[in-house]
Amino acid sequence: MTTIDPVRRELLKNALVTTADNALVMVMRTARTSNVKNSMDFSAAVCDGAGRLVAQGVAVPVHLGVVMPALEACLAHFGDDVREGDVLASNDPYSGCSHLNDIYTFKPVFVDGKRVAFVSLILHHSDLGGRVPGGNAADSMEIFEEGLRIPPLKMVAGGLVNETLMRIIEFNTRVPDRVMGDVRAQLAALDQAAAEAEKLAREWKPEVLEAYLDDLIDYAEILTRSELSKLPDGTVEFEEWNDDDGVGNGPIRIHLKLTKTGDQIEADFSQTDVDLGGAVHCNRAFTVSCTYAAIRTVLSAAIPNNAGLYRAITVKTKPGTFVDVTFPAAVGSRGQVGFRLRSIVLGALATLLPDQMPACAGGSEFAIAASGSDANGRRFLHLEFHNNTGLGANPDSDGQDAGPYCIGNLANVPVELIEAENPIVIDEYGFLPDTGGAGRYRGALGLVRQYRFLTDDIQVQVRADRFKSKPWGCSAAARAAEPPPR
User: Which residues form the Hydantoinase B/oxoprolinase domain (predicted)?
Assistant: First the structure.
């Protein structure tokens, strides 16, 4: 039996988080695409030898709730055939991942032949083929239209890079120099994280580390249940609407029944509208991840971000609905419904916690992908995600202008870098006056960014929402959102 020292447990938690953060810093320094190195559309995590999440870096929250199901699918495929020097990889939404652009990678860490951990990196790769540059088309109907689908496999086997897979990726992207640069950055950062995790495991000794990781997960569960116990019990039903599904059906009703009882909480989305097509909807893994991220915002920041936090949260969905699509549905633009899921969960929590929660964020994350050839005939692809409407008003202050949604957390791409890397001029970029909404405190101001393309035959793809339904406010009347006209 290992006696747990709370001080050492805290030191271990911080060391694991630092390992993940160091990997993210390395990605930023070595990646090629603006979406990764500037927007920071990536995440890092550490799991124990069994695949349970034990730490996460400062990254994109909705990536992290998908880490365990993605790793579980990889382990289910390979079984005992996971060896030192391997890197497992997948981007398949029907194998635990969320959409094709996000490639999940996992490197096992061994000490004296015993598997003690996995380090994980998730990068949003700007283009993996498909019918539309950038892979986020809202009107695709099947996953096969969206690009290269990578089932659970080994990107590296025994320290040897899978050159066949690398060539397949290279030949299935419109901007191979940049995408392959990001893939190599991802592998290099994994190597660094694995070396740090192995050093940590040797210093602690594998059997002691295992005991402390078990305790760290249990500790997170205890703290989470303690925090949930402080919230009022009750059942709240809350609805929001997506304008449409990308192919003309809508508005789409997303329904949540949130039940808080004692030290646990249940989010039931089973009454959401049936899926009819398009690519704006999402699979169950992504719905669960978004729900975790939203509930996390009302819990103490001191709670470790690991699998223990999830134990007190139950998420129910119904297969075939807008938030739990089934094969072979396209899911490339699933980020849109993710932001709507966030506002639904927070709207329900705002009903349970009146005068303590912020109002709904403005619209949704605005996504733009533009691709064509520059004056020298070279292919370019600019991918960018905006926090274009910022956050809703707080009970005691204005909303944060251009603030990121709690599930996204992406950074601004400087105008100068956009213009340096693409045949694009940004003619205007700034806040829009008087767009925050009326009330004791205003919501965030909207943003304007005007793009001017310097070459012809540019293919532009835009993802946005909230043209039909209004964001809800802090008051009880304002939270009772009415359905938009059909």
Answer: 5-477
Judge whether 338 and 62 are in contact, CB under 8 Å.
Answer: yes
Burial 345-374 (b: 16+ CB within 10 A, else e): bbbbbbbbeeeebbbbbbbbbbbbbbbbee
Whether the bond between 485 and the residue before it is cis, its omega within 30 degrees of 0, is: no
Once rounded to an integer, what is the mean pLDDT over residues 449-472? 91
The token pair at 262 is 């004692």
Q: In what order do the strands lie in the sheet with 87-90?
A: 53-56, 42-48, 114-124, 102-111, 87-90, 153-157, 160-161
In 3D, which of 121, 124, 461 has the Cα closest to residue 279? 461
* Burial class of residue 439 in the structure, from the number of CB atoms within 10 Å of its CB (0-12 exposed, 13-18 middle, 19+ buried): middle
3-class state of residue 37 by DSSP: helix
Residues in the chain: 486
Instruction: From residue 202, give the alpha-carbon distance in Å to each of 5, 117, 209, 374, 418.
Output: 18, 12, 9, 52, 44
User: Is 103 a residue whose pLDDT tops 90?
Assistant: yes
Strands 102-111 and 87-90: antiparallel
Question: What are the beta bridge partners of residue 252?
Answer: 242
Task: List the one residue out of 125, 406, 134, 142 whose CA is nearest residue 289.
Answer: 406
**Residue with tokens 């470790």, as numbered in its chain:** 304
Model confidence pLDDT, tens digit, residues 284-332: 999 999 999 999 999 999 999 999 999 999 999 999 999 999 999 999 9
Chain position carrying tokens 């030290």:
263
- Say how far apart CA 460 and CA 440 lie, in whole Å: 39
Pairwise CA distance, residues 262 & 229, whole Å: 5
Per residue in 11-60, pLDDT (tens digit) is 999 999 999 999 999 999 999 999 999 989 999 999 999 999 999 998 88
Residue spans of alpha helices (H) in 33-83: 34-37, 61-64, 67-78
Determine contact, residues 120/114, Cβ cutoff 8 Å.
Answer: no
Q: Tell me if 393 sits within 8 A of 441, measured CB to CB.
A: yes
Map tokens 């005939």 to a residue: 377
Among 125, 124, 120, 13, CA closest to 68:
120
Residues facing residue 424 across a β-bridge: 453
Start-to-end C-alpha separation, the chain: 63
390: closest CA among 351, 436, 331? 436
What radius of gyration, in Å, describes the C-alpha atoms of the chain? Answer: 22
pTM tops 0.85, yes or no:
yes
List 447's β-bridge partners, or say none. 431
Q: How far apart are CA 68 and CA 74, in angstroms?
A: 10
Q: Is 113 helix (H, G, I), strand (E, B) or coil?
A: coil
Burial of 477: CB neighbours in 10 Å, binned 0-12, 13-18, 19+: exposed
Q: Dihedral sign, CA of 269, 271, 276, 280? A: negative
